[in-house]
Give the backbone structure.
Amino acid sequence: MTNFPAADALDAVVARIEAYGVPANDYDVLEILGTILNDYGVQVDDVTEGDFLRLLTLNHRDDKTGLPCPEWCSRPAGHPFESEFDDGRQSRPHETKLPRPDIPGGVYLSLVQEDVRAKGDDSSAVRTVPEVSFAVDASFQSDELRKLAAALLNAADKLDDVNARQDKQLTDDEL
Ligand SMILES: [Zn+2]
């Protein structure tokens, strides 16, 4: 049994995750590992680095796409579909980070949109309406709350701007 990941193995994993378009600095690599491996019903400690890399490659084998991103998406062009619904449809998240308040604690603030298609079939793809995704895990002083409020107002303006330049898309309820 291999303790995974060792430090050098972690570097390899980060490089591989970045190659798939996930900005590793923005995520907990071990959490990503755990999520992916859990999908396969195995424990992190039971997996060697080589096995993990093979799993990750398999995970994306059928997920390539020729669909363009929205103009504002910050991921690499052609980034793959990343997850699957119970009915077999696949989802591909577009994302760009929005300006976050300079305050302690974790604040996640991004413009997001999603392509959904039948497995491997770009021609079936539909795109959801753009939305702002926001999560926060912190407690605030009043000045920090005002910075947060300003960042949220800016996010609303950005969303209006993107919506004004895109045709009607599907809402989550219409998927
Ligand atoms: Zn994209």
